[in-house]
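Hi R.,

Here are the chain sequences for the assembly we discussed:
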Amino acid sequence: MIGLFDSGIGGLTVVRALLQKYPNVNFIYLGDTARFPYGNKSKETVERYAVEDAKFVIDKGAKMVIVACNTASSLAMEKLRKTYPGIPFVGVIEPAAKMAVQVSNKSIGVIGTRATVGSGIYDTVIHSLKPQIKVQQKACPLFVPLVEEGMFSDQITKIMVRRYLTSLRQANVESLVLGCTHYPFLQPLLQRFMGNKVNVINSAEAVVQEANDLYPDLFLETPDIHQKIAFTDTSAYNDDLAMRWLGKRVEIISV
Amino acid sequence: MIGLFDSGIGGLTVVRALLQKYPNVNFIYLGDTARFPYGNKSKETVERYAVEDAKFVIDKGAKMVIVACNTASSLAMEKLRKTYPGIPFVGVIEPAAKMAVQVSNKSIGVIGTRATVGSGIYDTVIHSLKPQIKVQQKACPLFVPLVEEGMFSDQITKIMVRRYLTSLRQANVESLVLGCTHYPFLQPLLQRFMGNKVNVINSAEAVVQEANDLYPDLFLETPDIHQKIAFTDTSAYNDDLAMRWLGKRVEIISV
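And here is the predicted structure of the full complex:
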């Protein structure tokens, strides 16, 4: 059983990437919708929430946990590994950073929430992999509410894309890391704005590939498939969204 | 001591209205920034959070509690009164509804979060006061993040005002109730869009007046002034915002 958690529904882009490659894998996903969003919260608070989220999926049988949330991956990995030493945790930061470094020589752009960008984590990880690369970050705090509203190609979203990303386009970055699990929904818009020469790195796809490389046994098909999504807050709106995003029926429970 | 709580920093508009009229009153405000926002959450979750928030300000000595949050005022008043029978609670809904009814004969517009609008509470309260009045509601989910970003008169905010409020303007409503404590920051923009004939009702001012009418003793000046703001999540960003909004120094603690 693979465990995944996120502050809300954004991490479902990771579930979607998982199911696209491994449709019959066992997983339990927790979306902490009752305390969403994590992006503007402090390190201590995000750590506390992440530890509780991980406990839930581990109690449900997860043998490995994908932290499908950039904010928690930025701020809480150390705390998670210390709290649950027997469980491997895979965050979304390193896999996306690696993928970006593979296709870039000079400069990488990173977009994310205020918390992720403020943590400077992508900068640190990318420089540890390729010290000469220039990393330009930009916080895009309105993208999450715009995605939550389903405004994937709205006029407003286009204006905000232009406003947030103009400096990165002018800097001629070679890749753009989508440092927030909500952002893959904006990928077509972002790709169009940045131009075809820029590699847009989807951290959801990157983390699924990394987890499979590290723990292939957990991705084997079993005759008895368990696929569950849990939310800490009940909302028909979220249930609907989950079904539409994943394009298949999975069991949804509330906790 | 007057207690106030909100899901975050929006309720500080109520503190601001309180201090403008009663600069030397004793108060304790709790902003539940660690679990912000409440606007898209379920009734059960909002009730649970509101009960915990109220406990905090009551434990600090509050003899009366202003629920400075429209979502909690819509969903949790009954639960609060049952849980703490000895404490009077004043929500933001009734005072704003009363004020709107006083200046309207035919139709009132109400804007708020998805949770507040979905609860239909303004409709119920306004009709109980003046059954013949037509109430038109509109959820404006992006206004809260726009206010949190300080985009009070941004191009984006203007586009969203037009998009959300055109139907209310076309309906010729006589008053517009700002059914969310964040919205007073958009009051100039909203007033301009709706026109000068429309009474824009600020629920922050309405609730302070109502609380003073009901419990005047708590508004008396004391020689020993205690004015405190507490946040459940520490963030220099929030502390800054609080100081700027209130225009004076108050003690800020984190819990």
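Chain A touches chain B through 24 residues (CB under 8 Å). Chain A has a mean pLDDT of 93.

Let me know if anything looks off.

Best,
T.
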